[in-house]
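User: Okay, second chain of the day. Same drill as before: sequence in, C-alpha cells out.
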Amino acid sequence: MIFLAGASMLSLGNLAHAQEVADPAQADAVPEEERTIVVTGSRVIRNGDNSPSPVTVVQTEDLLTTQPGANLADALNALPVFSGSRGAGSNPSTGGSASGGNGSANQLNLRNLGITRTLVLMDGLRIPPTLFNGAVDVDLIPQMLVQRVDVVTGGVSAVYGSDAVSGVVNYVLDRNFNGLKAEASMGVSEYGDARQFDAGVAWGTKLGENGHFEASYQYHDGTGILRRSDRPWMDLVGVAGAGTAANPFTLYSNLRQRDYPAGGVITTGPLANQVFQSNGTLGAFVNGQATGTAALQVGGGGGDWDSSLLQPLESHQLFARGDYDFSDSVRAYVQFSGTFKQNESYAEYFRLNNVQLTSTNPFLTAAQRTALLAGGATFRLRKTMSEGEDRRQHATSDSDQWMINAGLAGKLGGGLDWQLDYIHGRATLATEVANNMNQQRLAAALDAVVNPATGQIVCQASIANPAAYGDCVPLNPFGPASESAAALNYVYGTTHYRAVTVMDDISGSVSGSPLDTWAGPLSLALSAEWRKVAFEASSDATSEDLVNCTGIRYNCAATQTEYFLTLPANPPVSQTVWEVAGEIDIPLLKDSAIARSLNVNGAARFTRYNTSGDYWTWKIGADWHVTDTLRFRGSWSRDIRAPTLYELFAERFVVNVVGTDLLTGQSPTIPSINGGNPDLKAEIGKTLTGGVVWKPAQGLSIALDGYQIQVTDAILAVNGGEPSFQTACYTSGGTSPYCDLQRRPGSFSDTSAANAWTAVYNGLFNISEIKTWGADLEINYGGHLFGRPLAVRLLGAYQPHLWFRQPNVASRDQAGAAFGPVGFAATPTVRLTGFVHFEPVEHFSIDILQRWRNALKLQNEGIFAKGSNHMDAFGTTGINLAWDAPTKFGEMQFYLNVQNVFDADPPVGAFTGNGTRAGLRDGYAAGDDVRGRYWTAGLKLKM
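Assistant: Same drill. C-alpha cells below.
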C-alpha cells in the first residue's frame, strides 16, 4: 500500500524505535494522534508532523510492489526528486571519474546536483564510500529488511555533516522483524531479453526476554540488454554540426563514422578512399549523406558502435543484526551488512586510427602491393574492428562491499538519552577489462613481413627483436573480420584494477527534552563524530605504463600508453574528520489565537578536515501549525561538501576518447588526461525552503514546498574537449586559459586537418557556481471506492532551472535538457509519479504506477536545426495484480506485474559532444525506460 505522509522525520538514533505506520487504506480507523510518524531530518524532532524540512517517506513494500524484481535504487528513482542517478542503464564506461571504476553501479542523485552532493545513510548513520570517486553504491543496503526510505530534500549538513547539500537518503531498517518471509520472481521483456531472477529470505526472532536477532539474504541475476541494436528505435542516434547559424546542430539516426569502415579504408596514396571488401578485394568507399561534421555521415559504408544498453548484474546481499537490552536503560546492538556483486558492461570496438602500413604487406594481393608501391613504401589505413568475434571492450566489476556497526544506547534520566556508535566499512572493487588493446603489441602485429628463412608471414618485430616479440602473431587488417583469432588474442589483453576504500567512524550523542516550557518540551541534542576514510588502488594498466618501441618500425610513439584503457593506481591516502554539533527545538506558542503550535529549530556544526580545512555549517527552521489542518514550514541552511580523496589525490591517468575537434572538424581518438587537485576546498551550499501542508478533508493531505539551492566554490571538472570550453578558447584566438587544456601540433589559427588536437586535459577546480530552484508537490488520499480500500498518491517536481556557471564561458542551464558533458544528465523541468492501490475484492489488489516527464531539449546551448532540439514528453504505466492466499503455513501472495504496459519507446536524442559515439553513448534521456513492455511473475510468503 502507498504510505500517506505529507512530511517528515526523526531522531536518527540507530537504536531509536520508529513508531508503527498505519495502512492508509485503513486510515479512518486509526486516531490521528496514533498515526504520527518518526522520520529523518533532525536529532531532536520526534514527530514528523513538526519538521521544518520537507521529507518524502516511502515504504519499501510500496515501491517494490509496483516494480517487483527491481533493486531498491531503481525503484527509488521513480520518485520525482531524483534526477541524474546512475545505474544499469548508464552509458557503459569504466574509465573516468563519473564511473568510479564501475560505470553501472547504483548511485543516487537528488535534483541532478551531483551524486556526491547526496548523502546516503542507513538508520541515520553514514554509509562508507564504495567507488573510487567517493560515491556510494547503494546496492550495499539489505533490501529484504528495509522498512522504508526517507528522502530529505534540502541541505542538512548541520545535522549529518558533509555531503548533505542537495539532501539525504536514509534507509530505515525493520529492526523488530519476527517470523519468516520469502519471495521469488522472474521477469522478461517483450523482446525476450533483460531476464531477471530474484529470490530472498528474511528471518527474525526474539532471544529470551531481552534479545532479538534477524538476518536476510537476497539474490539477483539480471542478464541486461547487451547491444543497443537490440532495440529498433535505437538506430545509431547522434548529433552533427557545430552549433552555429551556418552549421547548426542536427539530430540524426543511422549516423556512421565516415573514416572508419569495418573493412578498412586506405587514406593515402594511389588507392586512397578504397575500402577492403570481405574477400580482400578493393572497392570504392560508399558515401552516405553528408552532415555538418566532416567525420559523420548518415548511412553509407562508415563504421558504427554497438555498446550494451542495460548492463548485466548479479548480486548477493547479506544482513544480520542482534540487539540486547542489558537493562531498562542500556541497550546494545551489532550489525553486519554486505553486498557481493558483479556488474558487466560492453563498450567500444577498437579503431585503427590512420595506422601506417608497408606497401609490401604480405596480406595484400600482388596487384594491391604493386599499386601501393607506386605511391611510396608505406600507406595509411583507418578501420573499426567490429566484425567477426565480439571484441567490444568488456568490463567486469566485482564489488565486495560490507560494513559492521556496533553500538550502545540508553537513558541518563531527566528526559535525556545517550547513544554511541561505531562503523567499520570496507569496499573492494576489482575491475577486469577484457579486450583492452595492447598498443605495443598492435604496432608489432600490424607490421607483417615474410620471413626470408621460412617463407612464413611473421611480425617484422619478431625478426628485429625476437626476445620481446618471438610470440608475435601478425594481424591482417584488410577486410571485415580479416583478423585471425590468434592475432586478436595476441593484441587484445585483459587488465586489472583493484581499489580498496575503508571507513572507520565513531559517533556519540546526547539528546532529549530536559525541561518543559509554556508551549511544550524544549528539546536538545549534542553530538560528536570522528571519521577516517582511506583509499588505495592498484592497476596493471596505468597511464604511466608506456610502450617500448624497441624493434618496432611504425605506429609506436614513446608517449603512448601500453593499453588503450587505463585506470589509475593510487598510493594509500586518507582523510580524517572531527565534528561537533548541537541542535535545539524551541516551542514558542501552543493553542494560541494565531497558532495551534509554533516551534523554531536550530542546528550548528563545526567540522575540521585534515585535508581541506575548518568549516561551520548551520540550519534554522520553523514549523507553524495554524490549525489542525493547515501548517507552514520553512528552513534556511549553510551546508558543505568536502572534496573526496579521489578529487584531492587522484594520480594522473589517461582515458582515450573520441570527440569532435571544433577547430578542425576532425574526430581522432586522443588521450584525455585526468588527475586530482590537492588544493581543493569544500563547496559551500545555501538552501532556502518553504512550504505548506493542508488537510482539507478526512484522508486527504496536500503538501507543496518550494526551494532554492546555491552552491559556491563548486568543484568542477574542466575538460578541454567540452564544446563550451573549446568555443571560449577559439573565440579568444588562443589566449584563453582554457586553451591550455588542449594539445595540438600548430596554432589556434590553423584549421587544417593536420592541426587536429592530440590530447585534452581534464582538471578539477573550485571555480563553479550551481544554482537551482523549484517546487515539490505531494498529494495523498486514503479512503474507499465502492466500499473497498483505496489509496492514491501523487508526487511531482518542478525544477525550471539548474544553472552551472564558470568563468569566461556561457552558463549552462541543465534544466529541461536531456544531455550534457560528463557528470550531467537529463533534468526534466516537470516530473510526475502517481501510485494507486485498490482492493476491489477480498484477497485481491491492484497497484498502478504512472511515471511522466515533460518534453526536453537535447541541450539549452548552441543553435539547432529546426526540429532537432526536441524530445517528446514520455510516460510509462505499470500495473501489479496480486492474489493473497492464506494457508496453514502463513500468508502467501501470487502476483503478475507488467511494466510499460503500452510498450512505449523512449524519444531518441544525443549530446552534441557525442556525435562521433553514436551507438556507444546516449540515444535516450537517462531515466526513460529502455526495456519496453516487461513481464514479471512472482510469489511471497510470510510466516
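Confidence is low (pLDDT under 50) at residues 1-38.

User: Thanks, on to the next one.
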